[in-house]
Amino acid sequence: MSTKYKATTTEEAYFITITTVGWIDIFTRLNQKEIIIKALNYCQQNKGLEVYAYCLMSSHIHLLCKATNGYILSDVIRDFKKFTSKNIIKVIINEPESRREWLLDYFQKACQHLKREQQFKVWQDGYHAEIVETNWFIKQKVNYIHNNPVKDKIVQFPEDYYFSSARNYAGLQNDLEVILLDLF
Question: Fewest CB within a 10 Å sphere: which of 35, 103, 127, 181?
Answer without folding.
Answer: 181
